[in-house]
Write a structure and sequence with these properties.
The protein is mostly helical. The protein has 13 helices and no strands. It is elongated and about 65 Å long.
């Protein structure tokens, strides 16, 4: 059956207007990028630059990441930096903050998508949507777009803001640019859209089967765990991000997204959605 794009965009724009007109939701979506793209990176870089660090944990973590890099290229560049503090800042900016940055699209898309169907149920408007002259597929695509578009706008905006702040602080320290590298480009323009879609599909699936926001949040919140695992993997040197790893992770999630789309289209129909709100 042909998808009516006008109907899909009408559903998406209705939800996006609902998000932007709700001050509490809007503030929540903006605070997260400010913390992870501005406040935390700026505070961390300035702290390392101006304070003489004596923590053996940071020293071990930095040396672990550097030793995990392939010989030559970036590894030689880091080792040639004038001080250990320069090495820490380089590693933090180009490795640890990257995995932390992924929390912005994941958490923001999670919060929007969780509210997609379960919000309609709690407001008592899902029934009228199910009786409207639209297909379930159009309803799902509209809900996915309503979470995907604002999340990607916030993610790219956060990346630009992060780049401006980080460059303004690090350029005088290094007398040159250390950001962005290939990892960051792939992280924002390859992996972020895919992981955002993955999060939204999981959350929309959970939201469609849950009766309340709390119930959906308990299950849907588990999607953050792989990002925490990625951060821990980098800090312990078990998984150092590289262009190849980012491409492979993105490809893997892309395949999972196709399987999720298949599950959503097969197991969610008008009757199932109606019964889930009873």
């Amino acid at each position: 059956m042909k998808i009516n794009r006008h109907v899909v965009w009408t559903i998406a724009m209705k939800d996006i207007k609902g998000i932007t007109s709700n001050k509490q939701v809007l503030i929540g979506l903006i605070i997260l990028p400010l913390i992870f793209a501005v406040i935390f990176p700026a505070a961390f870089i300035l702290l390392i630059h101006f304070v003489s660090l004596t923590s053996s944990d940071i020293e071990i973590m930095t040396n672990t990441i550097i030793s995990g890099l392939p010989n030559g290229g970036i590894k030689d560049t880091i080792n040639a930096l004038p001080s250990f503090n320069h090495q820490i800042i380089y590693v933090i900016v180009n490795y640890l903050l990257g995995s932390m940055f992924l929390l912005i699209p994941v958490i923001n898309s999670m919060m929007i998508a969780l509210n997609s169907f379960v919000g309609e149920k709690e407001r008592g408007t899902l029934e009228s949507l199910l009786f409207a002259p639209i297909t379930v597929k159009e309803l799902f695509i509209g809900k996915v777009l309503s979470a995907f578009v604002p999340t990607m706008v916030l993610t790219i905006g956060s990346f630009v803001l992060f780049g401006v702040i980080t460059t303004a602080i690090t350029y005088p320290i290094f007398n040159g640019f250390i950001f962005p590298n290939t990892n960051w480009i792939l992280l924002v323009f390859w992996l972020s859209p895919i992981i955002t879609l993955f999060t939204i599909l999981i959350e929309v699936l959970v939201s469609a089967r849950s009766k309340s926001f709390q119930e959906a949040q308990q299950i849907g919140g588990l999607v953050v765990l792989p990002i925490v695992g990625l951060f821990v993997g980098q800090a312990t040197g078990m998984l150092i991000i590289s262009p190849i790893i980012l491409l492979l992770v993105g490809l893997f999630l892309l395949i999972i997204n196709v399987l999720l789309l298949f599950l959503i289209s097969k197991y969610n129909n008008r009757n199932t959605l109606f019964e889930s709100q009873v």
